[in-house]
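Troubleshooting log. The previous structure file for this entry was overwritten by mistake, so regenerating from the original sequence record. Sequence copied from the archived sheet and checked twice against the printout by T.R.
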Amino acid sequence: YVKGHSWKVADLMTSDVVVADEETPIERIAVLMQEHGIKRIPVLRGPRLVGVVSRADLLRAVVAAKFDATAAGDDAIRRSILTRLREDAGVNGDALTLTVSDGLVHFSGAVRSQSERDAVRVVAEGVRGVKGVYDHLYFAHP
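Regenerated output below.
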């Protein structure tokens, strides 16, 4: 009765909130929404709220996803990542070392910025057959 008739937020709010951190995979967010019957999940960086992911956000990500159609296999994955880094993300892979073993991608070397580092990870995650991405990158000094 109280939840349906109160004018105070404290009476209406949910106290057992389902949250995620910034590194939570999109697939896990979708599962949490399904399991708990919710439409939005707050995203935390440590103890601080930095955003909210909604079902609409997930749908936009699925629609915009550009999954690679290359054949599976570590060599094919490596070639695809390097090509997509150059052509789609504008990242010159010359300063990077990329190894792929059983679908696990390891990057090392220098990047120029956090956005370049993020682009490397996102490109690799979008390639079919990639099971995990490990970032051993560092920032190049100007």
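The beta strands are 20-21, 40-45, 48-54, 96-101, 104-111, 132-139. Archived copy saved in two places this time.
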